Amino acid sequence: MRRKILATLLGAAMLVLPVCGFTGCGGETQPFTYDDGISASGNYDSSVFYRNDLEVDWFADPGVIYAEDGYFYAYGTASDMSGAIRAWRSKNLADWEFVGVVYNCEADGWAYLDVWAPEVLYYQTAEQKINDEPGLYYMYFSAAWRNYPSGSGFDNYRMSVAVADSPAGPFIDVGKDTAWTNADGTQISVSEYYGRGYDGSEPVFLFEEHLEEIAANGVDIDGTLDGVQNEANAVFSVIDPSPFIDEDGSMYMYFVRHQSTGNSGNVIYGMRMFDPITPDYSTVMPLAAANAVVGANRECDYFEKVNGVYTPMDDPAVSLSTSEEGVNEAPFMQRHTTVKADGSTVTKYYLTYSIIGYTSPFYSVSLATGDSPLGTFRKVSASLPVHGTNSDFDHMSGTGHHCFVQAGDENFIFYHAHCDRSMGNGNPRALAVDRVYWYYNEELGYDIYHSDGPSYSLNPVPEVTSGYKNIVPQAQIEATNAADGRSAALLQDGMSAIHAYDDALEFVANGSTQITVTLPRSYTVNAIFIYNSRSYSMAFSKVSEVRMTASDGSVYVVNDLAFNTEYYNTTNETIRPGAAAVMAFEPLSIVKIELTIDTPIRSGAAQIAVDEIKVMGK
Questions:
Q1: pLDDT value for 233
Q2: Each residue of 413-428: pLDDT tens digit?
Q3: What confidence tens digit (pLDDT) does each residue in 285-305 have?
């Protein structure tokens, strides 16, 4: 993995500007150096920036955790290595270190190929928490079952669990491990600790052995969703397991019943878990299915029991059109409480999932919300997707199968993307990541997700690594020539406009604008990001002046800070959303920043839009 950190702050991407702003300089001229981003050789300073370079490739369906050692650990489907799971780790999201093969199919194990979609959960028992003892890492994944009776297509796909005492593995199938230490120091398996009979020769989750329990809960066990039970066709092929622990400590598992004999489409299911390796099969229920279900061209917006059986229902108020294309997969669950302006709260469970299919450039992430971990979940309109591409994107493709990770006070969405950025074509796929935020939706009456991606431009490294965070939300911000309804406050909401439905997030000026960011105190600042408009017609080509006032009265000035020309195309009049004019520098104690933006990319444009300003300080 090549390093992106520059050897010196005086590289090709640097400018040295001797500046004396006023008498506060004390008559001394001091050189001010800054880094405007990507050097001629393609490098950048990875202590400040990261970018989705898609270098962790042949790596799909990522499951990512932020571990106590300060690393993000990423586990994924090894598209070029069918019987194993590989892991990578990074602190800054730019430099990824290969951890190794962390799970491998064994000759006498249940799994033998197509080891897919790992997700890792760090879990401590109540006793371990009380005694401040370390827990274990549980890896949930799906694979082809070696000894499954012959069947068609995906009939032999099942999911199971492997455990390790480190995020770096190795992960061993439950029942073959000796991961648990008794009080007397003896080593036993996790299966023995929980009193189960798993020995690693079969997958942990075996739905066919519990069809009576599942059917008693109203599940159409043959998978047709037609309300008619046909146990002869009850092949329960599953992929994409995803664990979730609620605030009360209860645990749930979400997964996809894959297309198989008698089951023509993917359906997302959920169930409660007694512990990390023991399902409560009596709670299995369908949560989301794609449109065009039951052989009818209709949408499935939620499930409802009809004559005691869960049945897909179409909500006329929700518009999904044909956008899901028969695919609902890769589920992920979060709980979030919205605090409204009047102080009242709304708690929702957020089921996010991927639609369309991984080979499509438009493979993307959608949302359904519910009031409990097992629903009912109602889908949010297709006009409010969580994360995905547009038809005019040439920088990212196939951005789905995601997970959310919180690191400190920041939230990130990790996902895979096609290495062929413009055409897609399935494999190879690679790891990518962007920030994600909560924002209040007036129509729904609660928060929903906003992703600052998919991006292919420089963004700040995580605060947990750099120690620097965006301090503009705490600042007083003013801007001249604001268009009606587009106040300067839009420059400090933290969110970038990626799609057309985000346009209202941008500040718009009639002609040129001068933006003043006044900090509430002096901050140590090391970088500034001025995010451009997603609309070519209002985008700027440069920031004509950046003026920073230091706590000692010194003034530092940069003229003509360019917006990277790689981010826009003057022939097609397109621009890469989520991109910024950037400058990084040795830390300075700053109290005020003034920006002059007066040069549109399109000559003669009547308005200039600025998406967001981020000042990284501490």
A1: 64
A2: 999 999 999 888 889 9
A3: 999 988 644 444 556 788 888
- Looking at the chain, the whole-number percentage of residues with pLDDT higher than 70 is 90
Distance CA 588, CA 414 (A): 32
Residue 291: partners with Cβ closer than 8 Å, 6 or more residues away? 297, 298, 299, 300, 320, 322, 323, 324, 325, 326
Distance CA 109, CA 200 (A): 6
Give the closest residue to 15 by CA, choosing from 42, 41, 36.
36
Helix (H, G, I), strand (E, B) or coil at 490: helix
pLDDT at 332 over 80: yes
What number of residues does the chain have? Answer: 618
Kindly give, in sequence order, each residue whose CB lies less than 8 Å from that of residue 189, ignoring residues fewer than 6 positions away: 174, 175, 176, 177, 178, 179, 180, 198
How far is 580 from 582, CA to CA, in rounded Å?
6
Q: Quick one: which of 167, 25, 29 has its CA closest to 85?
A: 167
Alpha helices, DSSP H only, in 106-232?
A: 126-130, 190-193, 211-216
Model-wide pTM > 0.85: yes
Measured in degrees and rounded to the nearest 5, phi and psi for residue 233 equal -100, 15
Question: For position 571, what pLDDT does the model report?
Answer: 92
DSSP 8-state symbol, 367: E
Regarding beta strands 97-104 and 49-50, do their DSSP bridges make them parallel or antiparallel, or are they unpaired?
Answer: unpaired
CA distance 609 to 509: 6
Tokens describing residue 415? 């996902």
E-strand ranges in 193-320 read 238-245, 251-257, 267-275, 278-289, 302-306, 309-313
Do the Cβ atoms of 288 and 351 come closer than 8 Å?
A: yes
Query: What's the CA gap between 135 and 482, in Å, rounded?
Result: 54
